[in-house]
Specification:
This protein is α+β, with helices and mostly antiparallel strands. Helix content is 18%, strand content 23%. The chain has an eight-stranded antiparallel sheet, with helices on one face.
Amino acid sequence: MVCLLSSLLLAVLLAACGGDGDTGPAATSSTAAMPEPQQGQYSDQPDEDVPPATAPPGSLASADLSADPPDPLPGDAHFDGYGQAMFGMDADQVRSVWVGGLDGNAAEGEACFHLSPAGQPVIADFALMFENGKFVRYSVASDALVAPGGGRRGMDIAQIQQLYPGRVVQSPHKYVEGGHYLRIPDDGGSNGVLVFETDADGTVTEWRVGVPPQVDYVEGCS
């Protein structure tokens, strides 16, 4: 009886030891499916192809930065007036077509006076001249405005002559030693005249457009 119990106990112990040491195929494949990561194996690229990024139209990236800036436009200056304000109009007519309003009024009994755009910080930058009740001239001392034909403040005499070939009549400045007046009549049929004034270095400092004789006044209203 003792021998039979000993045999059964030995069989149970052997069965238990066999279960702990199972190295069958299932266990082996489970371990092999999870390899240890190694340094440098991970990719910094996406798994799928990605199209290149594109900038939206009009953005800085899509702009042609090598293109030259556009030439300045003539603006509203012309030989027979400025914008819709035509030489020969009275002050009320000019005010009615002027966008933004005009500052200034004629003093009682004053035959000649000037109007300037409302809010303009420097009166001399742009002024409309009236004499005997009529719009006869406008004067410009600003870099921002362009004369009829393309001339502007800051150009030299050679540039003006190139813009208005065969039309420039040059004469000495009355007050600036070495300066000049560059007088240019309209070649389009009007009686308007463009006059540039230069300093002693030949650089345009201001210009005006008007009808004779007022366009040739060198002291504004005189």
